[in-house]
Amino acid sequence: MKEPSFMIVIPKNEKDMEDPKTFLDNLMNNELINVKDMHFEENRGMVVAFEIEGAEYEAVLNPEEIEIPGMVRPEHAFTDEEYKLLDEARAGLSVCMDYEGDSNRCFYDQLRFMNVLFPDMLAVLDCPSEKLLSGKWVSLAAGSKILPAPRYLFTVQAISDGGDEVWLHTHGLKRCGLYELEILCSNKEFYNDHYKMIESFALRMLESDDPIEPGDGVFVGQAAGKVLTLTAVDWHEALEFYPAATLGTEEDRDDGVHSEDTYVLMIYKNERDEEARRYTPVQDFNQFLDQNPMYMFSNAETKRMSDLAIERIPYMLKAFENKDNTIIVKIGLVTDKAYWDGDKPQREHIWFELKDVKDDQIVAVLTQEPYYVSGFKEGDTGTFPFSEITDWLIFTKERRVTPDDAYLTLGNNLLL
Q1: Distances (CA, A) of 143 to 92, 148, 256, 298, 305
Q2: pLDDT band at residue 254 using 50, 70 and 90 as cut-offs
Q3: Which of 211, 251, 339, 401 is the most buried (most CB within 10 A)?
Q4: Sign of the CA dihedral running 242, 245, 250, 256
C-alpha cells in the first residue's frame, strides 16, 4: 500500500543544477539539518541520511528532466513571469523520502529539507498529490513553526466525460500508508459537497491515532439535523450499487493506479445500519445538502489554523495599510453559559470586519448575527487582543488571501 513521497524541486535558475556542489554545500552548511551520512549508490542516486529536530530520515536525490504532466494542477497562484519560467524549465532535482510516523510532520520536514537545498526555488512538483507548489509558499511554510495544513498531503481529483457524471478520487494518501478514497456517480450539482465529504474523511484518517479500517463508521458532519456517517467500501463491491456508472468502472482501472488500495465512500443512515454494516450510496444524503451542511474540523486542526493566523498577523497588518483592501477576522466569542460543556466555556467562532489596530489589539465590527452569544449582535464593535484571532482573510481587488497563502503578499505577486 505504502508509496514513497517523490517530489521534484524546480530551481529558478537551471545553472543551480549544473554543479551539485552548490546545493550540497547549502545542505552541509545550515543550522537546521544535521547530515549524518551522504553517499552515492549507482542504482539509487545520492543518498542522504539526516536528522531534523530529533526526527531521522533518508532522502534520495537525483537530477530530473522537467515535464509537468497535464493532470497536475497549480495549488498556488503564479505570476505570468513564473509561468514563463515554468514553461522553460528543463532540469530539476527529485527528493524521494519514505514517511514513517506523523505524515504531516514528514511532509513539513521534506519541505524544509528542499528549502535548504534551494532557498530561492521556483516551484515543487509534488508527484503523489499531483500538485504544483509555489516556491514562495514552500519557503514560507518551511520557515514557519506551524505545520502545513494536512490537506496538502492529498488531492481530490474530479473526472468528467463532458456529461453530468463526475468521478471523485484522491491521490497522495498512499505515501501516508493509507488507502485512497473515491465517490462514484457524483454530478455537477453535488460534487462540491461530495468533495468535502472525501476531504473530511481523509483528514480524519490522517489525524486518527488508530487506523480507520474499511467498514468503520466515521462521523464527518451534519445537515438538516441529520448526522453524516461515512464508511469505506472496496470499489469492486461499491460498483454493484452503481450499475449505471460510466466512470470509475473496471475499464478505467487498467492502469493499476485506481485498482489497488482504493475504497469508495458510502454512508450509514443510522446506528442500526452501522452495527449491521449496512451501507448505502452517499447520494442518499443529497436531499439534505441544500440545508447548510457543516463538516467537522478536529480540535487539533482548529488550533493549527488559529496558531497559523496568529503567527502571520504581520502580513494582515501590512495589508491593512492599503485602505483599498477589506480584511475580516474570526474571533472565538465565549458563548452564553447555557451552551457550555458543564463548567467548560465554549466559543462561537464568528467573523468581524477589521476597522483599526491599537497596539496588540484590533477594533472590529461584527458582520453576522451570533447563534449562541446574546451579548453581541450584527453591527456591534468590539476590541480584541491578537491572541483571540482564530483566522483572517484579506480581500483585495484581485483576490482573497488567507494565512496559508500569505506568500502572495511578498514581492510582486500582490500589491498591498
Answers
A1: 22, 11, 38, 25, 16
A2: confident
A3: 401
A4: negative
Q: Is the dihedral of CA 52, 174, 402, 200 positive or negative?
A: negative
- Torsion sign (Cα): 55, 56, 60, 63: positive
Which residue spans within 253-388 are E strands per DSSP?
A: 262-268, 280-281, 294-295, 326-334, 347-358, 361-366, 381-385
- Structural domain boundaries enclosing 344: 299-409
Instruction: Indicate if 43 and 55 belong to the same structural domain.
Output: yes
Task: Identify which of 162, 124, 157, 186 has the alpha carbon closest to the alpha carbon of residue 257.
Answer: 157
Per DSSP, what are the bridge partners of residue 388? none
* 183 and 271 assigned to the same domain: yes
Examine the fold and report which residue of 118, 148, 178 is the final residue of a domain before the chain moves on.
148
3-state secondary structure 42-103: CCCEEEEEEEECCEEEEEEEEEEECCCCCCCEECCCCCHHHHHHHHHCCEEEEEEECCCCCH
The pLDDT, as a whole number, for residue 410 is 64
Whether 416 is covered by a domain: the verdict is no
Total domains in the fold of the chain: 3
The verdict on residue 272 lying in a domain is yes
The pTM of the whole model exceeds 0.90: yes
In this prediction, residue 256 has a pLDDT band, given cuts at 50, 70 and 90, of confident
pLDDT in tens, 322-336: 999 999 999 989 999
Rounded Cα–Cα distance for residues 115 and 178 (Å): 27
* Judgement on whether residues 13 and 63 belong to the same structural domain of the protein: yes
Domain shared by 137 and 185, yes or no: no
- Whether 115 and 190 map to the same domain: the answer is no
Instruction: Answer yes or no: do 104 and 180 share one domain.
Output: no
User: Last residue of a domain, which of 128, 148, 168?
Assistant: 148
Listed in sequence order, the residues at least 6 apart from 298 whose beta carbon sits closer than 8 Å to its beta carbon are 203, 204, 207
Q: Is 227 exposed, middle or buried (0-12, 13-18, 19+ CB in 10 A)?
A: middle
Q: Are 285 and 223 in contact (CB under 8 A)?
A: yes
Q: Find the mean pLDDT for residues 162-187.
A: 97
Residue 415 lies inside a defined structural domain of this protein: no
Q: Looking at the structure, do residues 246 and 306 belong to the same domain, yes or no?
A: no
The conformational region for residue 224 under phi > 0 = left, psi -120 to 50 = alpha, else beta, is left
DSSP state of 29: T
The answer to whether residues 237 and 257 belong to one domain is: yes
Domain assignment of residue 375, yes or no: yes
**Reduced to 3 states, what is the DSSP secondary structure of residue 4?**
coil
Residue 415: pLDDT band (50, 70, 90) is: very low
